[in-house]
Write a structure and sequence with these properties.
Blueprint: H1 2-43, H2 66-70, H3 75-135, H4 153-200, H5 207-238, E1 245-248, H6 249-259, H7 261-266, E2 270-275, E3 279-282, H8 284-300, E4 307-313, E5 316-321, H9 355-365, E6 369-374, E7 380-385, E8 388-389
């Protein structure tokens, strides 16, 4: 900070001193140009007409003023006026140089002091920002600069810094919630496994009970694996895309719905698909997970005899489902990790609240957006918009 203040003070002070030197030089030139002529004009009428031995003393030329062109001077008068004007002019210029030099020295000292003070005033908000940034930690992210200053670049910088702190605080809070929720979700299956092993296998249980406990442990382990895979997928999509390729979103949707047809039939849910040719640039694996999570979420949060409608077109991907009513106020929260519209009621293996958060993360990684709305009769409609390309000609599927 001191080095920047020194440089600014040197710059401001140097400019002020240069301006003072330039001003004094201009004043000196202007005064020296007219001082002799002005003295001759003023002194000549007062000189008596008398003979004087003026010798060969050099003198400035006659003034060019209107008075000099009309006045009639005797030779003796003009000679005396020349000698007086020369001596007076030299004395005046010498005095002017002395006074100007002293004034310039004082002015230079004041200029440097003023420049140092101005530099400190200008850099004070930067010092406040630097000190606050050094003190920031996870425990005081709520602090803000709240700089009170007139509108300007430094005020804008301080406000931008406060906005950045807002975003960082929100991000840290979200990560803390995510870590706490992930720990809770991972602890639940471990507790189930431990309870099954300690209680179920105590006192030499019969083979049927051992088989049931074995199946329970396997299902719980599968749940844990799916949760870990979801967490890894969320982390990968948050990092952004490492590769891009042309992906036929309509074909991906058709493949995913066909793969989930057995689950839809098991739940007695009708799936209706309307797909127009759409090509996007992105990661085929991540886009497959995006479509799968949307359709699977629509199936699992539905009721027997319900429907799931899937539409693909230039506007993006839309998945609507029937089901229980959803509070509109909770809809935006569904895209956060481990958020559910209702209390945990899924059966083993049906996910852990990461489905829509993975959808939102994959959409962001592809430069898209995701949104949802609650349907009036119950259920949810989720829409994903992605940057699309013109569809390329593709062979019709048999």
């Amino acid at each position: 900070m001191n080095s920047e203040r020194t440089r600014l003070a040197a710059l401001y002070g140097g400019l002020l001193v240069m301006a003072g030197v330039l001003l004094l030089a201009i004043v000196y030139l202007l005064v020296s140009e007219g001082v002799y002529a002005g003295i001759v004009t003023a002194v000549a009428p007062a000189v008596p007409t008398a003979r004087m031995d003026v010798g060969s003393v050099p003198a400035p030329a006659l003034p060019t003023s209107d008075w000099a062109q009309t006045a009639v001077l005797e030779p003796g008068q003009y000679a005396v006026a020349q000698k007086v004007s020369t001596a007076a002019g030299d004395a005046a210029l010498s005095q002017l140089l002395t006074v100007s030099g002293v004034s310039l020295a004082v002015y230079s000292a004041l200029s440097v002091a003023l420049a140092w003070w101005m530099a400190g005033r200008v850099l004070r908000p930067v010092g406040v920002i630097t000190a606050r940034a050094r003190r920031l930690s996870g425990s005081n992210l709520h602090e803000r600069l709240a700089l009170k200053a007139p509108p300007g670049e430094l005020k804008e910088l301080a406000d931008t810094f406060d906005g950045m702190l807002d975003r960082i605080e929100q991000l840290v809070a979200a990560r803390q919630r995510f870590a706490a929720n992930a720990a809770h979700e991972l602890r639940t299956p471990l507790a189930v496994q431990r309870a099954a092993a300690e209680i179920g296998l105590a006192d030499d249980p019969p083979p049927e009970k051992v088989a049931w406990i074995r199946d329970k442990l396997i299902d719980t382990a599968a749940n844990s694996e799916r949760l870990i895979e979801g967490l890894l997928l969320l982390a990968v999509s948050d990092e952004g895309l490492r590769r891009r390729e042309r992906v036929a979103l309509d074909e991906t949707t058709a493949t995913v719905t066909e793969a989930l047809a057995a689950e839809a039939e098991k739940r007695d849910i009708t799936v209706e698909v309307t797909a127009r040719p759409v090509t996007v640039e992105g990661d085929a694996v991540l886009l497959d997970h995006l479509v799968h999570n949307l359709v699977a979420n629509a199936l699992r949060h539905n009721h027997p005899g319900g429907t799931v409608t899937v539409r693909v077109g230039p506007d993006g991907l839309e998945v609507a489902n029937t089901g229980p009513e959803v509070d509109p106020a909770t809809v935006p929260l569904l895209f956060e990790p481990f958020r559910r519209a209702r209390a945990r009621r899924q059966a083993p293996g049906e996910g852990a609240g990461l489905g829509l958060s993975i959808v939102a993360s994959v959409a962001r990684a592809h430069g898209g957006d995701v949104g949802a709305r609650a349907n009036p009769g119950g259920g949810l409609t989720a829409r994903v918009t992605l940057p699309t390309r013109l569809p390329v000609a593709r062979a019709q599927r048999r």
